[in-house]
Amino acid sequence: MDPISRAIKWRATPTVFFAWVAACLLIPAADTFGSDFTMKGPSEEVRVAERADGMETSSVRVAFLGMIRLYQSFVSPVGGVDRCGFRPSCSRYGYQAIQEQGPLVGIMMIGDRQTRCNIFKEPGADYTLLPNGKLYDPVSNNLLFEK
Q1: How many Cβ atoms from other residues are within 10 Å of residue 86's Cβ?
Q2: Distance between CA 41 and CA 43 in Å, rounded?
Q3: Whether this model's pTM surpasses 0.70
Q4: Where are the domains of the chain?
């Protein structure tokens, strides 16, 4: 091989290599350039709420939810199942209130619920009677503040 063809081959090798690497990186991304997904963003179904099954960052909320779970696991089963006259049960209501509204408002909602949870409570305009004889009182009906 003459020196001129060796020089051309030596100089062309890095150029071919970089062109090959660029093609390998850009060809898979070419489908997304200008596609509906990149232009519109993810659909509403793909978007999730900020607190949906993510890592909890509030240590106070984690502590309160842990105490409620501890109560539900060890203390509540001792007295027998299905003792609460409301649905959801008071402990489940408290868990949902703290999870959805935060520790401060959740504790106020739990206190409000505990004052209403007694044997003298009757079905009425505020509470519907379920077929199993329990009163339906969800967290969403008792929000202190709208978010």
Answers
A1: 19
A2: 6
A3: no
A4: 3-40, 59-142
